[in-house]
Amino acid sequence: MTRFVLASQPRLQPTVIAVPVGNNDIAIHRGTRQGEASLIISDPYGWKIAALNTMKGQQSISDILQVLADKGLRVEEPDLRKLVEELQTQNLVQDESYFDYQSLRPDQTERYSRNLNGFAALSDTGMTPAEYQQRLLKGHVLLLGCGGLGSCTATALAMAGCGTITLVDFDEIELSNLNRQLYTVNDVGTRKVDGLKTRLTEVNSDVTINTVFKRITDTPNVRKLIEQFQPDIVVAAIDRPVIAADRWISDACFTTSVPGVFNSVSAGMGMFWTKYPGKSSCFRCDEKWSQTNNPHHYEMRAWREKHDLIPATSAFSHSAMIVGGMMSADIVRKLVGWPMISAGKLITVSFTTLETTVIDKPQHPECELCAS
């Protein structure tokens, strides 16, 4: 556990504002423009709001006491220290050194300034915002499939500063792709991996983009890509061959101990789930549970695989953008060292009601691949 050290030059978080309310209170708002205050502080003598307005990282505790004294506010040092400690333990105030971004280039500090504010607001590990961004810049995502979900997820990751993205697809861009895939009319007829590489490079030249023009055909195929590129995580964004593709990718992820994010969208619903070796079920577990719940499952699956039966694509632009955004949010968590929300979970979102659900996907005790 990190030892608590009181901020010597306290600075209010960039995402925090303090507002005097009523006669003797201060409302602390964190990170949103709407909603209730995160904290209400009693301030009967008016010195706390003055102290908060002085906490800009440029003055020590002693300096702040002097500023307050110059305003005619007599405050004892233990009382000011107690206020700083209360705010710091709730991540509302940090020491100025916490906001040291010298490990980033000046243009990166500007480009990722909103990321840095977000990391500062969300962190509870003692790591600095710059350290989180550096982790993200060192991250590597292997993206299998550059369609709607693939292109939206990759774009969000590139904007966030994911250091390396490897794109794998065998397809070319068609006019029918443009309602949900992040390409342009000028891209029609070109390879998806090439079109997406161009887009991602234009979005963020910090990101290294590898391309592989290839069709996924079996588990060894996926495993070879994982072993070649050594990604931190795999995104499974291919839909054919039906069922088999997810099995191949899941098996490859579990035999190489690399997590994989899976997904699906339609006009009415989107979903994603993460297969995380050692922390979640694998594809084979899910199949066994499905057979338990539906005795005809294997029979239905075999028929669909044999005839490659998959419903016609029905998806709007928002379908891919919402699920792609949610997936990228969880992938960023993985890359910076936070636990993934979707590990061992199925997360669904209804596009007709905007309701979300989270469903556990436990390991099967008889799974030949991942059962302990």
TrEMBL record:
Q: Which GO terms describe its molecular function?
A: tRNA threonylcarbamoyladenosine dehydratase; ubiquitin-like modifier activating enzyme activity
Q: Where is the THIF-type NAD/FAD binding fold domain?
A: 112-368
Q: Which InterPro entries match?
A: ThiF/MoeB/HesA (IPR045886), ThiF_NAD_FAD-bd (IPR000594), Ubiquitin-activating_enz (IPR035985)
GO BP annotation list: cyclic threonylcarbamoyladenosine biosynthetic process
Tree of life domain: Bacteria
- Give the signal sequence positions: none
This one is known as THIF-type NAD/FAD binding fold domain-containing protein
Origin species:
Photorhabdus temperata J3
